[in-house]
Write a structure and sequence with these properties.
The protein is α+β, with helices and mostly antiparallel strands and 282 residues long. It has five helices and eleven strands. It has helices spanning 7-22, 140-146, 169-172, 197-206, 208-211, and strands at 39-43, 54-63, 66-71, 82-85, 91-94, 105-107, 121-124, 129-132, 136-139, 237-240, 246-249.
Length: 282
Amino acid sequence: RASGAGGGLLDGIGNFLKQTLGGADGADAAAAPLALGQRLVVNSAQPAGQPFCGEYQVQSFTRNDRPVFQKAGLPANSQAVYLLFNEAGQWAFTPHADGRADGWAFAQDSAGSPSEIKGAFTIWDGTTWAPDATLRVLDKAAVLSAGSTSTPGFSGAAVAGGAAGGPAASDMGFYGQQASAVPEPVYESVELPTPMASVGRLHWKAHWAASERCLVRWVPAPAALADKSLPSHPAVKRGVLPNGMRYVMLKNAMPPGRFEAHIELHVGSIDEEPHEQGIAHM
């Protein structure tokens, strides 16, 4: 029955997946066969490049005559990260597998494989596009062949130098360390810059107990700061209506022509009757 009545359904699902993953016209699927075991290693020394670090597995389809790689080891419910050659002629880190000119980072390079990219990647850091010259895409097989044969999981310190044409130890960064060889964290106290002094005092007042154990050396708090009240805005007007309702008003000219009101009801679940339970959350 599975091969008979269900055959057409399964064939239809298979064709749909081929069209979805391999391109609507199937042109990409006809590209040169891929080494399905190929993996890449991405390293970066910049904070903006850290989300892209890790291993990438080649996929069974191509985009724009180039292989497509997907980041491996991500949680099942997380967004996929692809490294592919998009329609704009860029190698890009993107959540989309269809090759559209969109993504979080790109390199304007027409290399046939990501490990051959020579140009620097530009990354969106949430505010602007910033170059990351430290982001490297390496072929995992080349990285492993450049390491010590006696150290399967090698670390950067265990490799004296890269093989001919391969990456140097400084390019490998943290990648390849054995899972059991977790480096000891390095703790370092840092001084806060002068503009952060006032923020440091606020943090000290709110979290003084935790600050005692914090790795950052906060600005010393003024004497008896915890006993002082926060200053009130001089333009705030306060009063009480005849019905007992208290009000607080503050003029704000920006944006113009707007009025905003908030009401606080000083009641809660303790004031509810049994049949009213839950309304306080509204």
